[in-house]
Amino acid sequence: MPHDALVIWSGFLWTLGIFASSMVLGSLIGFVLALVLHARVPVLAQLVATFVELFRNSPLLVQLFLVFYGLPMVTSFSPSATGAAVLTMTVNTAAFMVIIVISALDAVPRGQWQAAGSFGMSYPQVMWLMVLPQAIRTMIPPTIVLAIGQLQTSSLVSIIGVDDLVRAGTILNTRTLRPFIIWPVIGLIYFIMAKVMAHYAARIERRVRAKITWFAPAA
Amino acid sequence: MIELLAVSKKYGALQVLNDITMHFLDGEVTAVLGPSGAGKSTPIRCINCLEQLSGGDILVDGKSVRERRNMREIQKQCSMVFQQFNLYPHLTALDNITLAPMHVLKLGREAARQRAHELLAMVGLADKGGRYPAELSGGEQQRVGICRALAMQPRHLLLDEVTSAIDPEMTTEVLRVIEKLAAQGTTMVLVTHEIDFARRVASRIAFVERGRLIKHESSVDFFGNQSDERISRFIQKMKH
What is the pTM of this model? Predict the structure, then answer.
């Protein structure tokens, strides 16, 4: 029994590690790509748009197989299961993040761009000083939704052999043949992770909101 | 001096400005009047490079708005006050005013704040510098908007229907500020509905209708002995 707990604990750490690293990296990359897309950088913007469309509209599992089994056959790059998992999840997260950031930027009223531009501010100045501070707040809720989704989706990496929570469950299940005990426990751990994350995210959002009193409607 | 040379502007098939030629001299206050939808705001939006011309040219102190490399310089020289204020909601009134001077004119933080305080005092908002736009009334927001434009120390001030989004009882305080600026000799182009106010502050009147410049003459001639039947009717109607 203590050994079983250890298997689950190890699976939890792997799930957490893969999820957290891909979420952080993916968000950062997605953020940068969104700025490239928004600034309509020639050629690069088209590449980003294509990338987003491809990765948003294909199953993560297919992407995982492609990276883990496909890449080594056509390139000299053969990632480990964990490497493939983090890489794929990062790229996948980035694709969704681009959409979130772009929508948040578009939600900033046009008058704000004009006001800042009319005083001779450059595009990067307007973006950095005016638009991003306003857009960041809009990005928080959809990013939390994405994070919770990606946490659940990360369970797919067990299929290519990453020792995550689901794989821990599979191992225990094979040994004990008690699926009705094993899987609820695994499910509950995902549930608790998601809830804890949502709780802290809500706190961050509240703090941002409190700091930015300007969202109170004008009297 | 701002010169409009045969300016035309189309939005798709809609002709908003049609062959407008006029100029605004330094130190002069010009009011642009006309019925709603006549294309009153478009000229100043074109001057500020917020819209691109479909035809003709605009020269701001000799620099053409058609050349992209002139754009920043022209925007520095012509500050705009917007109908909907367009203050930056995430910054305090004071920071709204200092932002462009600090980042565009590269003015030091202290100098910029000093100037912002002076401007706020001038418009009667000395104690409101720390407030966010959402905490200010419409009239107060617009006065901050005027300070923000003046902080750039522009050669020309462009005002786009600055009172039409404000409750009537709040407009007086804004108009008083503009009157003060006019008395100081600030060059202004004032797009407005307030005909009595135009008569008080403007030295010249431009009357625009259906995208065409109908009259451009001194305020005295415009209101004193108006020969144009339609304009007389317009003046009469707007008074009530």
Answer: 0.84
Domain boundaries in chain A?
Answer: 2-213
Interface residue of B90, B142, B150 to substitute, partner A, most A CBs within 10 Å: B90
Domain A2-213, CATH number (from 2.30.40.10, 2.40.70.10, 3.40.190.10, 1.10.3720.10): 1.10.3720.10
Q: Measured between alpha carbons, how far is A62 from B80 in angstroms, rounded to an integer?
A: 53
CATH number reported for the structural domain that contains residue B180 in this entry: 3.40.50.300
Q: In what order do the strands lie in the sheet with B78-81?
A: B78-81, B156-160, B188-191, B29-33, B204-209, B212-218
Number of domains in chain B: 1
B11: how many CB neighbours lie within 10 A of its CB? 10
**Containing structural domain, residue B66:** 2-239
Note the pLDDT tens digit of each residue in A81-97: 999 999 999 999 999 99
Mutate to test the interface with B, among A212, A214, A215 (most CBs of B within 10 A): A214
Closest by CA to B154, choosing from B122, B178, B177, B186, is: B186
Q: Measured between CB atoms, does A77 come within 8 Å of chain B?
A: no
Q: What is the pLDDT of residues B37-60, one digit of tens each?
A: 778 889 999 999 999 999 999 999
